Amino acid sequence: MRFQLKAIAPGGGVEAVDFQAPDEASAVRGLESRGYTVLSVRTRYVFGLTTARERFPVALFSQELRILLAAGVPLLAAIETLAQKERRDQFRGVLQRLATLLREGQPLSAALEEFPRAFSPLYVATVRASERTSDLVAALSRYVAYAGQVEAVRTRVVHASIYPALLTAVGGMVGLFLLIYVVPRFAHIYEERGADLPLFSRLLLAWGQAIDRNASVVLLAIAAGLALAFYLFRTEAVRRWIGDRLWRLPGLGERLKVYQLARFYRTTGMLLRGGMPLVRALEMGAELLHPVLRGKLAAASRAISEGQGVSQSLDAQGLVTPVALRMIAVGETGGNMGEMLEQVALFHDEELARWVDWFTRLFEPLLMAFIGLVIGVIVLLMYMPIFELAGSLQ
Q: Is the whole model's pTM more than 0.90, yes or no?
C-alpha cells in the first residue's frame, strides 16, 4: 500500500513523500534508511478508499526459498537472490529488509516478525521451531504442503459457491428490472383503463405507481442500500455477527465446526512435526477457531498441562469428532501425534468435500426454483387482469 509521509530531509527541509511499503512500520524504516526523519505518516487514499494492497505470496516465497536452501545456497544469499528477481516494489522492499536484518545477525524468525502483515504468527512460529532443530528446509516443505492443502479446501468451497452467487445476482437483477421498469408501465396501462384489478395486482401496481412518481429517490435509495450493505459486510463486527448466526443453524453449524477443527488439527500437527511443544502448538492453533471453541481449547490445554491425556482432554471439551478421538488416541499412544493430527485433518477434508458436493447439487436446483417462482409470481400478477378480461369476453 502507499503512504504519505511528512519528514525532514537530509538537507534540513520538510518534505511530503509518497512511499510504497507493505505496512506503516516498513514505510517509516524505508524512509529513515535514506536519511529522513519522519514526522508523521498516513495511508494514501484514492476516491475515499485506501489503495489496494496485495498480499505477500508466502507460499511461493517458502517454495523458492526451500529450493535454494536445498541446493546449498546460504540463507542470506537465498534471500538476496529472491529480492533481485522480485519485480514488485513492495515485495522487493520486504525481502531487502529481511536481508538487512539477517546481515545484522538476527535470526530469520526475528526478521520475519518485523513484517506482521506479510508473515503470520503461525509462519513465524514454524520457522522459529525449525531454528531449534536446524531443519529449516524440512519446515518450509511442511509449510508449503500445509498451505497447498488449506488453499485446496478454500478453493473447493469458493468454486462451489460461485454458481449459487451468480444465480442469486442474476435473479435479483431480473426481479429489480421487473419491479422498477416493467411494473410501472403496466400501472400506466391499467390506470388509464380503470380496470377492476384483483387485490394482489392492485398492490403490485400501486408499487409501480409509487416507483414511477419517485424514480430518482428509489434508485438513490437502492444504490445507498447496496453501498451500505457492502460497507457493513466489510466490517469485522458484522462479519462476526453473520458467522455467529450461521454457526447456530442446524446442520450447517456442525459442518462449520468440523471445518474449523480440521484446520486446527492440520495446523497443530504441522507445528508438532516441526518440534514445537504440544501446549504451545495448541495455543497457536487456537487462532483458527471460533471464539466459543477457543475458550474450550483453553480449558483443554490447562488439563493437558496438568497431566491429563490429550484425547481425553479434547473430548471433554467437545473438540473432537468420533473419528478424531480414535485417531488422536492412537497417535498419543504411538508417539506420532503430529502425523496423526494431519491424517485426521485429511479425513475430515475429504468428508467436507463430499458434503459440499452434495449440498451444491441439492441447493442449486432449489435456488433456481425459488428465483423462478418469485419472477413467475410477479409476471402473473401483472398479466392477471388481462387473463380475467379475456375470460370475460369469452
A: no
